[in-house]
Structures are given as structure tokens and as C-alpha cells.
């Protein structure tokens, strides 16, 4: 019995030593800490929240393949030097404002394969040094005009495999250094509001940017078409994006309220692309009427002139003929008289 007690005591001591060791070294249970690279790997641990006691000098934090579904504000306050944060394949459905506060040095943020459906405006304002932002494979249907302060160094922006119908040019303009764009597999609605995106993307590619594709899902006319291959002429009924008016107006209402959604929808449907713009047809019609009128007028005038000429000619001829007839009659009479005259002779 005393031996067993001794063993138990030893085990207790050992485990407390291990615990002490962990606290001193600052590596949370269920994570692996690599001191040389200052990275902490907590992936595939079935975590529901961020482990406490992360080493304060951590540069890379792997939290992928867990079940984290919520993050509090200032969630990463204890690791202010973080450069890379990987939250791939978790269960995040929304992100509270201020989640990323304090991550002044973060360069890579991977939020791929979560269940995000919308993002707060200015959510990433506290990440001025961001270089790569991956939001792909979520359920995002709307992105605000502003996500971060102008991101001087952001080069990769990925939103493929979401439910986006449109993307504001202003958002892309806040990433002056972006070189890689992933946009495919969304619900792109290719109406007038996409014209400014189309123009922006054309310029982006011209300047050497690399992107996948924007395939239209609606309206029916453009289903399956690549936005960049729709000719400009077909955007004629759309007003050109002068200083972003109109586009931004539709986007501003709070995405949460169903009323604003309805308004946006109505605004958008009023602005559908027309394969055959009406103004041209109208102009054609007016031109046709004018030309027809002129031609008709000329023809009528000519007919009138012809008629007058005809009548005059006929009258003159008739008069002349009448004169000659009378003359002939006289001649005939005279000639008729002649035999009378000559008979006695
Ligand atoms: C996502 O993480 C879960 C564990 O939470 C894992 O079982 C699954 O294989 C991962 N999926 C992918 C695509 O890596
Ligand atoms: C962008 O990167 C450069 C070079 O690494 C750095 O000097 C600069 O501070 C960064 N800009 C911001 C806004 O962090
Ligand atoms: C995010 O993680 C996924 C899965 O590991 C990877 O395919 C993707 O390239 C990562 N994104 C970035 C920007 O590093
Ligand atoms: C994505 O959102 C749609 C509605 O917008 C919802 O029906 C669907 O269940 C969501 N999917 C996931 C994986 O959250």
C-alpha cells in the first residue's frame, strides 16, 4: 500500500512539474510550440475557443481544423506580435467588431472554410500591415465598402466560393497594391452595378494583376458568361461610374434590414442590362420618319409639277390643234369651193 501511495505521490509530483514547465515555457496544453520559429500549432485539437496562455512572442498561430465558432473582442490581445493567423476550417459564423484589435503586425489572415455570412464595416481597420486576406469558401453575400484602412501592402485578396452578387469598386480601391484576386464561384449579378467593377478589373489586368474569373449567374441573358467578355456597347443604358455615385448609394443600407435589401433589389432590377438599347431605336425611328417625309414631299412636288406641265401642255396642244383644225376646215372649204369655182371653167 505504501508503495502505491509512493507511486501516486511521484506521479502527482511529475504532473505538477510538467504543468509548471508548461506555464514557464508558456505553451498551452494541446498545442505544440516551436521556440525557434516562434510558432504555435494548435490545429486538429477539437478546440472550441482560443487556448489561454499563448506565448506572448508568438509570430505564427495555427488554429486550423478546430471547432471555434465564436471569438470575443480583443481575442488575440495576448499575442501582439502575430504575423500569421490561420483559422482555416473552423465554425465561425460572424466576427464581432474589435476581434482583431491589437494585431498591428499581422500579415496573413486565413479565414477560409468557415460559415461567415457577412462582415462588419471596418472589421480589419486594426490590421494596417495585412498582406494576404483569405475569405474564400464561406457564405458571404455582402461585403462592405470599407474593410480596412487603405491597405498599402495587401497583395492577395480571396473571396472565391461565397454568395456575393456584387463587389464595390471602392473596396478594391482600398487595396492599391493588390496583385492576386480570387473571385470565382460566387452569385455574380451582371447588371449596371457591375460595370464599374468590370472597368476596374480591366485596368487591373492591364497593369499586370492576376485573377481567376467572374462568371455571371444572373440575369438570365448573361448566365454563364464571363463579365470581362461582355462587350462594352451592351452597357450603353448604364450611366458611367462618375465618382462612384449610385453604386455606393445602393450599397450603403444596412445589410441586416430586409427593407433595405428590397430597395437595393428594386434599384438593381431597374438597372438591368438591355441587349438592344431603346434610345438608338428611337433615334432610328425619328430619322426614318424625317427621310420618308422629305422623299414623299419631293415626289409629291414632282407629281404636281408634272401634272401642271401635263395640263398646260395638253391645253396648249389642244388650242393649237383647234386652231389648225379650223384652218384645215377653211382650207377644206376653200378647196371644196374650188371645184365649184372650176366647174364652170
Ligand atoms: C476540418 O476539420 C475537421 C476537424 O474539426 C476535420 O475532421 C476535417 O477533415 C477538416 N476538413 C478539411 C477539409 O480539412
Ligand atoms: C508596407 O511594407 C513596407 C515594407 O515591408 C513597410 O515598410 C511599411 O511599413 C508597410 N506599410 C504599412 C502600412 O504597414
Ligand atoms: C489558407 O489556407 C488554405 C488551406 O490551408 C490554403 O489553401 C490557402 O492558400 C491559405 N490562404 C492563404 C492566403 O495563405
Ligand atoms: C448559407 O446561407 C444560406 C442562405 O443565405 C443558407 O441557406 C445556408 O444554409 C448557408 N450555408 C452555410 C454552410 O452556412
From TrEMBL:
Residues 242-275 are annotated as: Disordered. The keyword Membrane applies. It comes from the Eukaryota. Residues 186-239 form the LRRCT domain. SUPFAM superfamilies: L domain-like (SSF52058). Residues 242-251 have a biased composition (Polar residues). It is a single-pass type I membrane protein. Residues 264-275 have a biased composition (Basic and acidic residues). Residues 26-60 form the LRRNT domain. One of its GO terms (biological process) is axonogenesis. The chain crosses the membrane at residues 285-316. The keyword S-adenosyl-L-methionine does not apply. Keywords: Glycoprotein, Leucine-rich repeat, Membrane, Repeat, Signal, Transmembrane, Transmembrane helix. It is found in: Membrane. Residues 1-26 form the signal peptide. GO terms for cellular component: membrane. Belongs to the SLITRK family. This is Leucine-rich repeat and transmembrane domain-containing protein 1. It comes from Suricata suricatta (Meerkat). The gene is LRTM1.
Amino acid at each position: 500500500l505504501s508503495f502505491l501511495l509512493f507511486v501516486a505521490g511521484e506521479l502527482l509530483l511529475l504532473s505538477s512539474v510538467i504543468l509548471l514547465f508548461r506555464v514557464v515555457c508558456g505553451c498551452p496544453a494541446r498545442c505544440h510550440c516551436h521556440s525557434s520559429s516562434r510558432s504555435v500549432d494548435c490545429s486538429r485539437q477539437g478546440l472550441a475557443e482560443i487556448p489561454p496562455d499563448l506565448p506572448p512572442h508568438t509570430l505564427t498561430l495555427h488554429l486550423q481544423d478546430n471547432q471555434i465558432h465564436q471569438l470575443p473582442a480583443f481575442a488575440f490581445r495576448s499575442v501582439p506580435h502575430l504575423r500569421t493567423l490561420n483559422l482555416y476550417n473552423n465554425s465561425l459564423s460572424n466576427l464581432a467588431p474589435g476581434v482583431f484589435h491589437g494585431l498591428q503586425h499581422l500579415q496573413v489572415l486565413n479565414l477560409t472554410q468557415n460559415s461567415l455570412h457577412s462582415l462588419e464595416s471596418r472589421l480589419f481597420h486594426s490590421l494596417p500591415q495585412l498582406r494576404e486576406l483569405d475569405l474564400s469558401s464561406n457564405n458571404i453575400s455582402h461585403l462592405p465598402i470599407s474593410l480596412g484602412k487603405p491597405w498599402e501592402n495587401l497583395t492577395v485578396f480571396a473571396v472565391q466560393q461565397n454568395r456575393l452578387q456584387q463587389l464595390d469598386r471602392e473596396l478594391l480601391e482600398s487595396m492599391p497594391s493588390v496583385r492576386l484576386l480570387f473571385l470565382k464561384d460566387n452569385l455574380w449579378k451582371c447588371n449596371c452595378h457591375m460595370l464599374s467593377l468590370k472597368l476596374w478589373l480591366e485596368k487591373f489586368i492591364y497593369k499586370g494583376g492576376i485573377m481567376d474569373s467572374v462568371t455571371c449567374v444572373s440575369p438570365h441573358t448573361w448566365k454563364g458568361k464571363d463579365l470581362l467578355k461582355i462587350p462594352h456597347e451592351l452597357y450603353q443604358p448604364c450611366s458611367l461610374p462618375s465618382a462612384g455615385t449610385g453604386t455606393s448609394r445602393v450599397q450603403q443600407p444596412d445589410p441586416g434590414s430586409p427593407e433595405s435589401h428590397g430597395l437595393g433589389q428594386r434599384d438593381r432590377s431597374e438597372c438591368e442590362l438591355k441587349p438592344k438599347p431603346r434610345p438608338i431605336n428611337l433615334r432610328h425611328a425619328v430619322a426614318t420618319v424625317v427621310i420618308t417625309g422629305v422623299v414623299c414631299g419631293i415626289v409629291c412636288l414632282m407629281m404636281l409639277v408634272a401634272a401642271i406641265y401635263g395640263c398646260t401642255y395638253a391645253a396648249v396642244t389642244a388650242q393649237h390643234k383647234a386652231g389648225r383644225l379650223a384652218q384645215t376646215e377653211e382650207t377644206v372649204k376653200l378647196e371644196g369651193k374650188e371645184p365649184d369655182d372650176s366647174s364652170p371653167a
